[in-house]
Amino acid sequence: MTRLILLAVAVLALGGCADLGAKPWQRGTLARYDMQLDCDPVLAGLDDHIYFSKEASSGGRGFGGGGCGCN
Amino acid sequence: MQLKRKRLAAATLSLLGAAVAPGPASALDLELPSEQLSKKWEFDTGMLVYSEAGGRVQAVEPVLKATRLFGQDRALTVKAVVDTLTGASPNGAAPASTPQTFTGPSGQGTYTANPGEAPLDDSFKDTRVALSADYVFPVSANGKFSYGLNGSKEYDFLSAGANARYSHDFNQHNTTLSLGLSYEADQISPVGGAPVPLSLMPPPLPPPPPGPEPEPEPEDGEGGSAETKGVTDLVLGLTQVLDPNSLVQFNYSLSTSSGYHDDPYKVLSVVGADGEPLRYVYEARPDARTKHALFARYKRFVFSSDVFDVSYRFMTDDWGVQSSTVDSLYRWNYNDRSYLEPHLRWYTQTAADFYRAALYDGEEATVDFASADPRLGAFSGYTFGLKYGHEMPSGNSWSARLEYYQQTGEREGVPEQAAAGLEKFKLEPDLSAVMFTVGYRFKW
Prior knowledge:
- The complex is a heterodimer of chains A (71) and B (444).
- Chain A has two helices and no strands.
- Chain A is mainly α and 71 residues long.
- Classes of the chains: A mainly alpha (71), B mainly beta (444).
- The interface between A and B is large, with 48 and 102 residues.
Protein backbone atom coordinates (compact mmCIF):
# COMPACT_ATOMS: atom_id res chain seq x y z
CA MET A 1 0.00 0.00 0.00
CA THR A 2 2.80 2.39 0.96
CA ARG A 3 4.54 1.61 -2.32
CA LEU A 4 1.32 2.33 -4.23
CA ILE A 5 0.96 5.70 -2.52
CA LEU A 6 4.58 6.56 -3.24
CA LEU A 7 4.12 5.59 -6.87
CA ALA A 8 0.96 7.70 -7.12
CA VAL A 9 2.75 10.69 -5.60
CA ALA A 10 5.64 10.26 -8.02
CA VAL A 11 3.33 10.04 -11.05
CA LEU A 12 1.33 13.07 -9.90
CA ALA A 13 4.53 15.00 -9.26
CA LEU A 14 5.82 14.21 -12.74
CA GLY A 15 2.45 15.08 -14.27
CA GLY A 16 2.50 18.39 -12.42
CA CYS A 17 5.95 19.05 -13.77
CA ALA A 18 4.55 18.94 -17.31
CA ASP A 19 3.01 22.38 -16.78
CA LEU A 20 6.32 23.81 -15.71
CA GLY A 21 9.39 24.49 -17.73
CA ALA A 22 10.63 26.43 -20.72
CA LYS A 23 10.08 25.86 -24.42
CA PRO A 24 13.16 25.03 -26.44
CA TRP A 25 13.30 28.57 -27.81
CA GLN A 26 13.11 30.05 -24.28
CA ARG A 27 16.33 28.50 -23.04
CA GLY A 28 18.80 31.30 -23.63
CA THR A 29 18.95 32.28 -19.96
CA LEU A 30 19.04 28.70 -18.66
CA ALA A 31 21.98 27.99 -20.98
CA ARG A 32 24.10 30.77 -19.47
CA TYR A 33 27.18 29.43 -17.78
CA ASP A 34 26.27 31.08 -14.49
CA MET A 35 22.84 29.37 -14.52
CA GLN A 36 24.38 25.88 -14.53
CA LEU A 37 24.03 23.89 -11.32
CA ASP A 38 27.76 23.29 -11.31
CA CYS A 39 29.12 26.55 -12.67
CA ASP A 40 32.27 26.26 -10.52
CA PRO A 41 32.87 22.53 -9.90
CA VAL A 42 36.46 22.95 -8.70
CA LEU A 43 35.38 25.41 -6.02
CA ALA A 44 32.42 23.19 -5.07
CA GLY A 45 34.81 20.24 -4.70
CA LEU A 46 37.15 22.22 -2.45
CA ASP A 47 34.21 23.37 -0.31
CA ASP A 48 32.84 19.84 0.05
CA HIS A 49 36.27 18.66 1.17
CA ILE A 50 36.65 21.43 3.76
CA TYR A 51 33.24 20.91 5.31
CA PHE A 52 33.46 17.10 5.16
CA SER A 53 36.67 17.28 7.18
CA LYS A 54 35.39 19.86 9.74
CA GLU A 55 31.77 18.81 10.25
CA ALA A 56 29.91 15.55 10.82
CA SER A 57 27.82 15.85 7.64
CA SER A 58 28.34 15.01 4.01
CA GLY A 59 26.38 14.42 0.84
CA GLY A 60 23.36 16.27 -0.48
CA ARG A 61 24.80 17.97 -3.51
CA GLY A 62 26.24 14.71 -4.84
CA PHE A 63 28.06 11.66 -3.52
CA GLY A 64 28.98 12.04 0.12
CA GLY A 65 32.60 13.10 0.07
CA GLY A 66 34.95 10.45 1.33
CA GLY A 67 38.25 9.48 -0.17
CA CYS A 68 39.95 11.25 2.69
CA GLY A 69 41.33 10.11 6.03
CA CYS A 70 40.41 13.46 7.54
CA ASN A 71 37.10 12.21 8.90
CA MET B 1 21.90 28.50 -35.03
CA GLN B 2 25.22 27.22 -33.84
CA LEU B 3 24.80 29.26 -30.69
CA LYS B 4 21.25 28.07 -30.14
CA ARG B 5 22.32 24.46 -30.53
CA LYS B 6 25.12 24.94 -28.05
CA ARG B 7 22.78 26.59 -25.61
CA LEU B 8 20.30 23.74 -25.90
CA ALA B 9 23.07 21.26 -25.28
CA ALA B 10 24.25 23.28 -22.31
CA ALA B 11 20.77 23.49 -20.84
CA THR B 12 20.42 19.74 -21.15
CA LEU B 13 23.79 19.14 -19.57
CA SER B 14 22.90 21.44 -16.71
CA LEU B 15 20.18 19.06 -15.71
CA LEU B 16 22.61 16.25 -15.22
CA GLY B 17 23.94 17.70 -12.00
CA ALA B 18 27.37 18.30 -10.61
CA ALA B 19 28.88 14.87 -10.98
CA VAL B 20 28.80 14.44 -14.72
CA ALA B 21 28.27 17.71 -16.58
CA PRO B 22 31.40 18.36 -18.62
CA GLY B 23 31.29 22.15 -18.51
CA PRO B 24 28.70 23.57 -20.87
CA ALA B 25 29.25 26.50 -23.16
CA SER B 26 29.53 30.04 -21.90
CA ALA B 27 26.67 32.43 -22.46
CA LEU B 28 29.27 34.72 -23.97
CA ASP B 29 30.24 32.30 -26.74
CA LEU B 30 28.87 34.73 -29.30
CA GLU B 31 31.77 37.03 -28.56
CA LEU B 32 34.44 34.34 -28.57
CA PRO B 33 36.96 33.93 -31.37
CA SER B 34 35.93 30.99 -33.54
CA GLU B 35 39.05 29.00 -32.59
CA GLN B 36 37.78 28.94 -28.96
CA LEU B 37 34.65 27.08 -30.05
CA SER B 38 36.64 24.40 -31.84
CA LYS B 39 38.97 23.66 -28.92
CA LYS B 40 38.58 20.18 -27.52
CA TRP B 41 40.02 20.53 -24.03
CA GLU B 42 38.66 22.55 -21.14
CA PHE B 43 40.92 23.10 -18.16
CA ASP B 44 39.61 24.19 -14.80
CA THR B 45 42.32 24.87 -12.26
CA GLY B 46 42.25 26.18 -8.73
CA MET B 47 44.16 26.52 -5.52
CA LEU B 48 42.90 26.78 -1.97
CA VAL B 49 44.90 28.21 0.93
CA TYR B 50 43.22 27.30 4.22
CA SER B 51 44.41 28.69 7.53
CA GLU B 52 42.95 28.03 10.99
CA ALA B 53 43.52 30.52 13.78
CA GLY B 54 45.68 29.66 16.78
CA GLY B 55 48.35 27.74 14.86
CA ARG B 56 45.96 24.95 14.01
CA VAL B 57 45.56 23.32 10.59
CA GLN B 58 47.12 25.04 7.58
CA ALA B 59 46.45 23.57 4.14
CA VAL B 60 47.40 24.29 0.56
CA GLU B 61 45.34 22.45 -2.04
CA PRO B 62 45.94 22.83 -5.80
CA VAL B 63 43.43 21.25 -8.21
CA LEU B 64 43.67 20.50 -11.92
CA LYS B 65 40.60 19.35 -13.81
CA ALA B 66 40.73 18.65 -17.53
CA THR B 67 37.78 17.76 -19.73
CA ARG B 68 38.15 16.33 -23.24
CA LEU B 69 35.06 16.96 -25.35
CA PHE B 70 34.43 14.34 -28.01
CA GLY B 71 31.26 15.86 -29.43
CA GLN B 72 27.72 14.44 -29.24
CA ASP B 73 27.72 14.96 -25.47
CA ARG B 74 30.59 12.59 -24.84
CA ALA B 75 33.25 13.83 -22.46
CA LEU B 76 36.10 12.48 -20.39
CA THR B 77 37.09 14.38 -17.25
CA VAL B 78 40.22 13.76 -15.23
CA LYS B 79 40.99 15.54 -11.99
CA ALA B 80 44.02 15.68 -9.71
CA VAL B 81 44.12 17.23 -6.25
CA VAL B 82 47.13 17.60 -3.95
CA ASP B 83 46.47 18.52 -0.34
CA THR B 84 49.34 19.53 1.95
CA LEU B 85 48.47 19.83 5.63
CA THR B 86 50.46 21.02 8.61
CA GLY B 87 49.62 22.41 12.04
CA ALA B 88 47.99 21.29 15.22
CA SER B 89 44.72 19.49 15.80
CA PRO B 90 42.77 18.95 19.05
CA ASN B 91 43.53 15.48 20.43
CA GLY B 92 40.22 15.29 22.30
CA ALA B 93 41.57 15.63 25.86
CA ALA B 94 39.92 18.25 28.06
CA PRO B 95 41.86 21.20 29.50
CA ALA B 96 43.42 20.78 32.98
CA SER B 97 44.79 23.04 35.72
CA THR B 98 48.30 21.72 35.23
CA PRO B 99 50.36 21.24 32.07
CA GLN B 100 49.46 18.05 30.18
CA THR B 101 52.08 16.15 28.20
CA PHE B 102 51.29 13.52 25.58
CA THR B 103 53.34 11.19 23.42
CA GLY B 104 53.02 11.75 19.68
CA PRO B 105 51.27 9.00 17.67
CA SER B 106 54.56 7.55 16.44
CA GLY B 107 55.81 7.08 19.99
CA GLN B 108 58.49 9.64 19.18
CA GLY B 109 58.38 13.10 20.70
CA THR B 110 55.88 14.72 23.00
CA TYR B 111 53.63 17.75 23.02
CA THR B 112 52.45 19.74 26.01
CA ALA B 113 49.30 21.79 26.61
CA ASN B 114 49.39 24.79 28.93
CA PRO B 115 47.02 24.90 31.93
CA GLY B 116 43.46 25.73 30.87
CA GLU B 117 44.13 25.04 27.19
CA ALA B 118 42.70 22.26 25.03
CA PRO B 119 45.60 19.95 24.08
CA LEU B 120 46.63 20.21 20.43
CA ASP B 121 48.65 17.49 18.75
CA ASP B 122 51.21 19.43 16.72
CA SER B 123 52.71 16.37 15.03
CA PHE B 124 49.94 16.56 12.43
CA LYS B 125 51.47 16.68 8.95
CA ASP B 126 50.24 15.00 5.81
CA THR B 127 50.13 15.16 2.04
CA ARG B 128 47.19 13.74 0.16
CA VAL B 129 47.02 13.04 -3.54
CA ALA B 130 43.66 12.28 -5.14
CA LEU B 131 42.96 11.30 -8.75
CA SER B 132 39.67 10.71 -10.51
CA ALA B 133 38.38 10.06 -14.01
CA ASP B 134 34.79 10.20 -15.29
CA TYR B 135 33.30 9.47 -18.67
CA VAL B 136 29.83 10.60 -19.73
CA PHE B 137 28.00 9.53 -22.87
CA PRO B 138 24.42 9.49 -24.23
CA VAL B 139 22.56 6.19 -24.32
CA SER B 140 19.42 7.58 -25.95
CA ALA B 141 17.95 10.90 -27.00
CA ASN B 142 16.99 11.54 -23.38
CA GLY B 143 19.30 9.33 -21.36
CA LYS B 144 22.90 9.76 -20.29
CA PHE B 145 25.20 7.43 -18.47
CA SER B 146 28.43 8.20 -16.69
CA TYR B 147 30.91 6.16 -14.78
CA GLY B 148 34.06 7.01 -12.93
CA LEU B 149 36.97 5.82 -10.87
CA ASN B 150 38.68 7.63 -8.02
CA GLY B 151 41.54 6.98 -5.66
CA SER B 152 43.51 8.82 -3.05
CA LYS B 153 46.61 8.22 -0.98
CA GLU B 154 47.92 9.89 2.10
CA TYR B 155 50.42 8.95 4.73
CA ASP B 156 48.19 6.59 6.69
CA PHE B 157 45.19 6.24 4.39
CA LEU B 158 44.46 4.68 1.03
CA SER B 159 41.15 4.88 -0.80
CA ALA B 160 39.80 3.50 -4.07
CA GLY B 161 36.30 3.93 -5.42
CA ALA B 162 34.03 3.59 -8.42
CA ASN B 163 30.75 5.24 -9.33
CA ALA B 164 28.05 5.12 -11.97
CA ARG B 165 25.16 7.44 -12.72
CA TYR B 166 22.22 7.46 -15.08
CA SER B 167 20.01 10.45 -15.83
CA HIS B 168 16.92 10.71 -17.97
CA ASP B 169 15.15 13.79 -19.31
CA PHE B 170 11.39 14.14 -19.54
CA ASN B 171 9.00 16.91 -20.61
CA GLN B 172 11.17 18.37 -23.38
CA HIS B 173 14.26 18.27 -21.14
CA ASN B 174 12.50 20.27 -18.43
CA THR B 175 12.53 17.42 -15.93
CA THR B 176 15.50 15.18 -15.19
CA LEU B 177 15.58 12.16 -12.93
CA SER B 178 18.91 10.67 -11.98
CA LEU B 179 20.25 7.75 -10.01
CA GLY B 180 23.86 7.47 -8.88
CA LEU B 181 25.69 4.72 -7.02
CA SER B 182 29.20 4.70 -5.67
CA TYR B 183 31.37 2.38 -3.62
CA GLU B 184 34.59 3.23 -1.89
CA ALA B 185 37.08 0.98 -0.10
CA ASP B 186 39.35 2.62 2.46
CA GLN B 187 42.42 1.28 4.20
CA ILE B 188 43.62 3.03 7.33
CA SER B 189 47.13 2.28 8.64
CA PRO B 190 47.46 4.34 11.84
CA VAL B 191 50.95 5.45 12.80
CA GLY B 192 51.98 3.24 15.70
CA GLY B 193 49.12 0.81 15.00
CA ALA B 194 45.39 1.10 15.64
CA PRO B 195 44.89 1.43 19.40
CA VAL B 196 42.40 -0.77 21.23
CA PRO B 197 39.25 1.38 21.73
CA LEU B 198 38.87 2.77 25.27
CA SER B 199 42.29 1.38 26.25
CA LEU B 200 44.73 3.45 28.26
CA MET B 201 46.97 5.83 26.36
CA PRO B 202 50.53 5.11 27.54
CA PRO B 203 51.96 7.95 29.63
CA PRO B 204 54.87 9.78 28.02
CA LEU B 205 58.30 8.26 28.60
CA PRO B 206 60.73 10.16 30.82
CA PRO B 207 62.99 12.52 28.87
CA PRO B 208 66.06 10.75 27.41
CA PRO B 209 69.44 11.27 29.14
CA PRO B 210 71.51 14.14 27.76
CA GLY B 211 73.64 13.13 24.79
CA PRO B 212 73.35 12.85 21.04
CA GLU B 213 69.78 12.66 19.76
CA PRO B 214 68.85 9.11 18.76
CA GLU B 215 68.01 8.64 15.09
CA PRO B 216 64.23 8.60 14.72
CA GLU B 217 62.88 5.41 13.25
CA PRO B 218 61.68 5.82 9.68
CA GLU B 219 57.91 6.21 9.53
CA ASP B 220 56.41 4.59 6.49
CA GLY B 221 52.83 4.74 7.59
CA GLU B 222 52.58 1.00 7.17
CA GLY B 223 53.94 0.15 10.62
CA GLY B 224 50.60 -0.34 12.33
CA SER B 225 47.97 -2.91 11.62
CA ALA B 226 45.80 -1.92 8.67
CA GLU B 227 42.09 -1.36 9.23
CA THR B 228 39.44 -1.16 6.52
CA LYS B 229 36.19 0.60 5.82
CA GLY B 230 33.67 0.35 2.97
CA VAL B 231 31.32 3.19 1.99
CA THR B 232 28.30 2.81 -0.32
CA ASP B 233 26.46 5.90 -1.54
CA LEU B 234 23.20 6.21 -3.42
CA VAL B 235 21.89 9.51 -4.80
CA LEU B 236 18.42 10.03 -6.28
CA GLY B 237 17.95 13.35 -8.00
CA LEU B 238 15.15 15.38 -9.57
CA THR B 239 15.83 18.61 -11.44
CA GLN B 240 12.96 20.70 -12.76
CA VAL B 241 13.02 23.80 -14.93
CA LEU B 242 10.29 26.04 -13.48
CA ASP B 243 10.27 28.74 -16.15
CA PRO B 244 12.76 30.31 -18.58
CA ASN B 245 14.53 31.97 -15.62
CA SER B 246 14.56 29.43 -12.80
CA LEU B 247 15.01 25.81 -11.83
CA VAL B 248 14.90 23.61 -8.74
CA GLN B 249 16.87 20.54 -7.74
CA PHE B 250 16.00 17.89 -5.15
CA ASN B 251 18.36 15.12 -4.07
CA TYR B 252 18.02 12.30 -1.61
CA SER B 253 21.26 10.62 -0.65
CA LEU B 254 21.89 7.53 1.41
CA SER B 255 25.35 6.68 2.64
CA THR B 256 26.18 3.52 4.54
CA SER B 257 29.60 2.66 5.82
CA SER B 258 30.98 -0.26 7.75
CA GLY B 259 34.37 -1.03 9.21
CA TYR B 260 36.88 1.12 11.08
CA HIS B 261 35.40 4.53 11.95
CA ASP B 262 37.65 5.52 14.88
CA ASP B 263 40.10 8.36 14.72
CA PRO B 264 43.18 6.49 16.02
CA TYR B 265 44.82 9.73 17.20
CA LYS B 266 41.96 10.96 19.37
CA VAL B 267 41.66 10.37 23.11
CA LEU B 268 39.34 11.31 25.99
CA SER B 269 40.28 12.56 29.43
CA VAL B 270 39.12 10.37 32.32
CA VAL B 271 38.57 12.84 35.14
CA GLY B 272 37.90 12.80 38.87
CA ALA B 273 35.21 14.80 40.70
CA ASP B 274 37.54 17.83 40.64
CA GLY B 275 37.53 17.76 36.81
CA GLU B 276 41.28 17.07 36.65
CA PRO B 277 42.53 14.23 34.42
CA LEU B 278 43.47 10.90 35.99
CA ARG B 279 44.40 9.23 32.68
CA TYR B 280 43.53 9.23 28.99
CA VAL B 281 41.81 6.55 26.91
CA TYR B 282 41.53 6.12 23.15
CA GLU B 283 38.16 6.89 21.59
CA ALA B 284 35.69 4.23 20.37
CA ARG B 285 33.07 4.66 17.65
CA PRO B 286 30.52 2.21 16.24
CA ASP B 287 31.73 0.17 13.29
CA ALA B 288 28.86 1.19 11.03
CA ARG B 289 27.07 4.38 10.12
CA THR B 290 24.04 5.21 7.96
CA LYS B 291 23.41 8.78 6.82
CA HIS B 292 20.35 10.17 5.03
CA ALA B 293 20.42 13.60 3.41
CA LEU B 294 17.72 15.64 1.71
CA PHE B 295 18.90 18.50 -0.43
CA ALA B 296 16.85 21.21 -2.15
CA ARG B 297 18.14 24.01 -4.31
CA TYR B 298 16.57 26.94 -6.13
CA LYS B 299 18.38 28.94 -8.76
CA ARG B 300 16.97 32.03 -10.42
CA PHE B 301 18.08 34.65 -12.94
CA VAL B 302 17.12 38.06 -11.56
CA PHE B 303 17.21 41.71 -12.66
CA SER B 304 18.07 40.69 -16.25
CA SER B 305 21.69 40.00 -15.35
CA ASP B 306 22.23 38.46 -11.91
CA VAL B 307 21.88 34.97 -10.46
CA PHE B 308 20.49 34.00 -7.05
CA ASP B 309 21.21 30.50 -5.76
CA VAL B 310 19.99 29.11 -2.44
CA SER B 311 20.06 25.57 -1.08
CA TYR B 312 19.07 23.70 2.05
CA ARG B 313 20.29 20.32 3.27
CA PHE B 314 18.93 18.26 6.11
CA MET B 315 21.03 15.32 7.25
CA THR B 316 20.39 12.70 9.87
CA ASP B 317 22.32 9.58 10.82
CA ASP B 318 22.18 6.66 13.22
CA TRP B 319 24.91 8.14 15.39
CA GLY B 320 22.46 10.80 16.56
CA VAL B 321 23.81 13.62 14.43
CA GLN B 322 21.24 15.87 12.77
CA SER B 323 22.32 18.85 10.76
CA SER B 324 20.91 21.68 8.68
CA THR B 325 22.83 23.67 6.11
CA VAL B 326 21.70 26.79 4.26
CA ASP B 327 23.94 28.01 1.47
CA SER B 328 23.26 31.12 -0.59
CA LEU B 329 25.03 32.98 -3.37
CA TYR B 330 24.23 36.15 -5.22
CA ARG B 331 26.15 36.68 -8.44
CA TRP B 332 26.12 40.36 -9.36
CA ASN B 333 27.19 40.57 -13.03
CA TYR B 334 28.01 44.26 -12.91
CA ASN B 335 29.19 44.21 -16.50
CA ASP B 336 29.37 41.66 -19.33
CA ARG B 337 32.70 40.24 -18.19
CA SER B 338 32.97 40.75 -14.43
CA TYR B 339 31.02 39.78 -11.37
CA LEU B 340 31.07 39.99 -7.59
CA GLU B 341 29.52 37.13 -5.65
CA PRO B 342 28.79 37.36 -1.93
CA HIS B 343 28.36 33.98 -0.21
CA LEU B 344 26.68 33.13 3.07
CA ARG B 345 26.55 29.67 4.60
CA TRP B 346 24.97 28.64 7.88
CA TYR B 347 25.35 25.22 9.45
CA THR B 348 24.21 23.61 12.67
CA GLN B 349 24.53 20.07 14.01
CA THR B 350 23.56 18.13 17.12
CA ALA B 351 26.15 16.01 18.92
CA ALA B 352 26.58 12.31 18.27
CA ASP B 353 24.99 10.14 20.99
CA PHE B 354 28.44 9.04 22.17
CA TYR B 355 30.08 12.47 22.13
CA ARG B 356 31.64 13.10 25.55
CA ALA B 357 33.69 16.13 26.57
CA ALA B 358 35.35 13.80 29.13
CA LEU B 359 34.61 10.54 30.96
CA TYR B 360 34.21 10.20 34.73
CA ASP B 361 36.57 7.89 36.61
CA GLY B 362 35.64 4.27 35.80
CA GLU B 363 33.14 5.19 33.10
CA GLU B 364 35.46 3.93 30.37
CA ALA B 365 34.67 0.38 31.54
CA THR B 366 30.90 0.85 31.27
CA VAL B 367 30.41 2.63 27.94
CA ASP B 368 30.52 0.97 24.52
CA PHE B 369 31.43 4.08 22.59
CA ALA B 370 32.85 7.49 23.41
CA SER B 371 34.53 10.23 21.44
CA ALA B 372 35.59 13.76 22.29
CA ASP B 373 36.25 14.63 18.65
CA PRO B 374 34.97 18.22 18.39
CA ARG B 375 33.55 17.42 14.94
CA LEU B 376 31.04 15.10 16.65
CA GLY B 377 30.00 17.73 19.19
CA ALA B 378 27.11 20.19 18.91
CA PHE B 379 28.00 23.42 17.15
CA SER B 380 26.92 26.04 14.65
CA GLY B 381 29.02 27.42 11.86
CA TYR B 382 28.96 30.49 9.64
CA THR B 383 30.83 31.20 6.44
CA PHE B 384 30.99 34.69 4.92
CA GLY B 385 32.72 35.17 1.62
CA LEU B 386 33.15 37.29 -1.45
CA LYS B 387 34.24 36.15 -4.89
CA TYR B 388 35.39 38.21 -7.82
CA GLY B 389 35.43 36.77 -11.33
CA HIS B 390 36.46 38.07 -14.71
CA GLU B 391 36.20 36.69 -18.23
CA MET B 392 38.88 37.82 -20.63
CA PRO B 393 38.27 38.59 -24.34
CA SER B 394 39.90 35.23 -25.18
CA GLY B 395 37.11 33.44 -23.32
CA ASN B 396 39.43 32.31 -20.54
CA SER B 397 38.38 33.35 -17.05
CA TRP B 398 39.76 33.68 -13.56
CA SER B 399 38.33 34.18 -10.09
CA ALA B 400 39.44 34.85 -6.53
CA ARG B 401 37.46 34.21 -3.36
CA LEU B 402 38.12 35.14 0.25
CA GLU B 403 36.06 33.54 3.01
CA TYR B 404 35.87 33.39 6.77
CA TYR B 405 34.56 30.30 8.59
CA GLN B 406 33.61 30.29 12.26
CA GLN B 407 32.37 27.38 14.40
CA THR B 408 30.82 28.06 17.79
CA GLY B 409 30.34 25.01 19.99
CA GLU B 410 27.90 24.09 22.71
CA ARG B 411 28.78 22.58 26.06
CA GLU B 412 27.65 18.94 25.89
CA GLY B 413 28.69 15.50 27.01
CA VAL B 414 30.00 16.66 30.41
CA PRO B 415 29.90 13.87 33.05
CA GLU B 416 27.52 14.87 35.87
CA GLN B 417 29.82 13.72 38.65
CA ALA B 418 32.58 16.04 37.42
CA ALA B 419 30.41 18.88 36.13
CA ALA B 420 31.33 21.19 39.00
CA GLY B 421 35.02 20.39 38.67
CA LEU B 422 34.97 20.97 34.91
CA GLU B 423 33.03 24.23 35.27
CA LYS B 424 36.26 26.23 35.18
CA PHE B 425 37.30 24.95 31.74
CA LYS B 426 36.14 25.86 28.28
CA LEU B 427 34.89 22.56 26.83
CA GLU B 428 32.95 23.90 23.84
CA PRO B 429 34.62 23.09 20.55
CA ASP B 430 35.41 26.13 18.46
CA LEU B 431 37.27 26.89 15.28
CA SER B 432 37.88 29.79 12.95
CA ALA B 433 39.55 29.73 9.57
CA VAL B 434 40.34 31.99 6.63
CA MET B 435 40.10 30.47 3.15
CA PHE B 436 41.46 31.99 -0.02
CA THR B 437 40.79 30.36 -3.38
CA VAL B 438 41.91 31.31 -6.87
CA GLY B 439 40.68 29.71 -10.06
CA TYR B 440 41.66 29.88 -13.73
CA ARG B 441 39.70 28.30 -16.56
CA PHE B 442 40.88 28.02 -20.15
CA LYS B 443 40.35 26.05 -23.35
CA TRP B 444 43.01 24.30 -25.34
